[in-house]
Amino acid sequence: MTIDSRQLRDALGQFATGVCLVTVMDDDGVAHALTVNSFASVSLDPPLVLWSLQRDAEIYALYESAPNFCIAVLAQDQQGHSSGYAQKGGHRLAAQDFEPGTNGAPLIHNAVVNFECSLERALDGGDHTILLGRVTRVSETNAQPPLVFFGGQYRELK
């Protein structure tokens, strides 16, 4: 049975997700951010999380080999971050949006929470690579509504 990719995408869009930025530093010390909604917890002991990276992403090589990264859960008022860093060619992180984390990966200012991670393993996930990260530090939680995506649109929790 063949599944229509557009139909599958629309069906998967019926699952509400949070929106995150995954951040890394390149070898030249330039910070980059990528918008994802594929973030999930995996294990508390050891502390593991995952996210998936599209194999044909223009910055695939930078992310799939980064030894450290940060996953920032975006707040409702950070929709501009989500839209901006999702654009092709728009992944260079603006200096005013971050500060360096303890592992070198950028922490996003005013995010709901930042998870600093080291790459544990990369796994085949079809047209994506699943990146398993070991959480090495968690920032203080910023008590504000998260940015939510559902049905192809940003939404608010009520």
UniProtKB/TrEMBL annotation:
Its EC number is 1.-.-.-. GO terms for molecular function: oxidoreductase activity. Keywords: Oxidoreductase. It comes from the Bacteria. The keyword Oxidoreductase applies. It is an enzyme of class 1 (oxidoreductase). The keyword Oxidoreductase applies. Residues 12-156 form the Flavin reductase like domain. Belongs to the non-flavoprotein flavin reductase family. This is Flavin reductase family protein.
